[in-house]
Automatic annotation (TrEMBL):
UniProt name for this protein: Protocadherin beta-8-like
Protein species of origin: Tursiops truncatus
TM region positions: 689-712
Membrane topology: Single-pass membrane protein
Main location: membrane
Annotated gene: LOC117311631
Presence of the UniProt keyword Repeat in the record: yes
SMART domains the UniProt entry points to: CA (SM00112)
Protein's GO biological process: homophilic cell adhesion via plasma membrane adhesion molecules
CDD domains linked: Cadherin_repeat
Gene3D superfamilies: Cadherins (2.60.40.60)
Amino acid sequence: MEVGRKLICRQRQVFFFFFFLGLAQAGSEFRRYSVVEETEGSSLVTNLAKDLGLGQGELSRRGARVISKGNKLYLQLDQETGDLLLNEKLDREELCGQTEPCMLRFQVLLENPLEFFQAELQVIDINDHAPVFMDRDMLIKISESSPPGTKFPLKNAQDMDVGRNNIENYTISPNSYFRVLTRKRSDGRKYPELVLDKVLDREEEPELRLTLTAQDGGSPPRFGTAQVSIEVVDINDNAPEFEPPFYRVQIPEDSPIGYLIVKVSATDIDIGVNREISYSLFQASEEISKTFEINAMTGEIRLKKQLDFETTQSYEVNIEARDTGSLSGKCTVLTQVMDVNDNAPEVTMSALTRQIPENSPETVVAVFSVSDLDSEENGKISCYIQDDLPFFLKSSMENFYTLVTERPLDRETRAEYNVTITVTDLGTPRLKTEHNITVLVSDVNDNAPAFTQTSYTLSVRENNSPALHIGSVRATDRDAGANAQVTYSLLPPLDAHVPLASLVSINPDNGHLFALRSLDYEALRAFEFRVGAADRGSPALSSQALVRVLVVDDNDNAPFVLYPLQNASAPCTELVPRAAEAGYLVTKVVAVDGDSGQNAWLSYQLLKATEPGLFGVWAHNGEVRTARLLSERDAAKHRLLVLVKDNGEPPLSASVTLHVLLVDGFSQPYLPAPEAEAADAAPAAPLTVYLVVALASVSSLFVFSVLVFVAVRLCRRGGAASVGRCSVPEGHFPGHLVDVSGTGTLSQSYQYEVCLKGGSGTSEFKFLKPIVTNFQGHSPGPDIEETPNFRKDFGFSIQ
């Protein structure tokens, strides 16, 4: 009965021991210590009392003990001093093999009260092993046809040490044919590779013996050697080749024995028995030989022993394919052992904000935690989001993360973000969980309306109808909602004299511009104003643009004849001497047009003449000239109808009637009475008669005024001018030059000399030739024309 009670009490103690041991492992952190291997037993590792913050003798009172996995004690605790001592000399290679770092875990148990502490002891390697070749005599058969640069892998040496104390490089004895390279496998181990530098010749040197040396990286370094015998093969000159030379396979750790890992294949381009290939493991360690097997005929590699991922994660298996001629090819099969990972990580969302105002500083979007039910690498978790988003993850505490904006967001650039939180474990294959969050960026009125153009140029044809749509302006706002609603308005005009309010208006909703009244090109050819665009945000933002309106000319003005005047009381008659030569300038029709551009380009045309072919009108300058020599058979009086037409569309025109009188000399009084003139014009329409009479009256008054002005000026001077061509008695007009400058559409200036002939009872005018300084390539006529107004108003006869 007593034995049973003790057994039950012992079981309870074991139960509570492992229960509190689990709690301690879950809540405490590791204390790490280190010791160099081969250190003598009873050597001091650390003082636990100081590390644990306990007083002297407290370890003994609390029953402190050191516990290690497997109940094998490598350490002992002096409870009185608190020193942690080595129990025996430690051999790192025996304890951990090739595993680096070599860590021994143990726990410190305090019974009264119960408390646990986790600790690790790292055994540091020393260079106490020299490299050793498993095969100290190697035989390599190389065909004499092998080209320089051919590489031959050699069996590597093994060194029980790790890190820098392991094998550093390989060298070979000096020779003329070979050098050795030190290669590194994926697992970090180094192996020698023989490189052919010079073509072999079996007849000269059928065999070579070289010394291969392996050197570790310790201080001082250690060495190991092997003999390499090279046999030069003369017959079979093609070695088997693997395609591909490197295989990478993955196998679950729970794969059954006999599981087909991979099938390697090599080919030999020889024929006959030389192409028969057998497969075998090459440079296989004891562990690889126990774990894998290969079918020599088919090249199938199968599992020979159960795998353990926690013991070995990968194997690098070297395969040799050898033909009957003893030539071989090599390939490497990297076998990765996969941990069984059957639990995906989980994401638990604690807080989430789905809408963030733009331009806000660093803002917390979400707070969440991650977890994984797996263990070891399969339970380790990495958490990340897309790289191209303005967010980042901040780790706040263990397995807790905060999603934060990286910078102020701009809604106009991007209004919505889809953030994918990806949680991945580190298992093989990796399992992951994705959690999607949609973040909306709310708008702030931070963008003013922007016009599509800084300035607009609109054209409108004159005489438009009121309320005509002449164009539009457009502004856009990158904001949203009311912040993007644009209202247009006219700003105060740049020129205060432009009545903008009566010229144009703008639709505040769409920016359409309208002409409020009919525009006249001749009164206003262009005007400018500014338009504004404002949004409805708070506060409102605005911008402005310049609008220039060009009034396009319309052909709405007919030509107006300045000379000869058509509203005079009597028609204007031009005198032409019969002795005039062809091309004699009779007169010039002067007209203007109120339009511009091609609408003001005038052309002249002779529509009707008393005697066709006698006179002609120059189309571009309106000069009326004789077309041929005059004869006695030509009528004395001629009536010419000249049409003046602009170049508009449609063209507008005006007409003028010219009266020409042919005279034998300027002394004959051939001026017809007004009654005769009226009789000749009687057949014409009443309107034409009135026009001719009005133009003649105005012309007469104009000429009379000019002569009176000249006479008054000359009389004031009181001098008698005698120039040898004309003598003027007292009280008569002196010689004077009358200048008619080219105005309007006249192409040149004319200057005439007029004087009264002295000693004549009739006081006749004498008209001399015109004084022309520049005729622009035209020859002047023999005599200047004379209008009948002079004779009519002053009673002068022509000599």
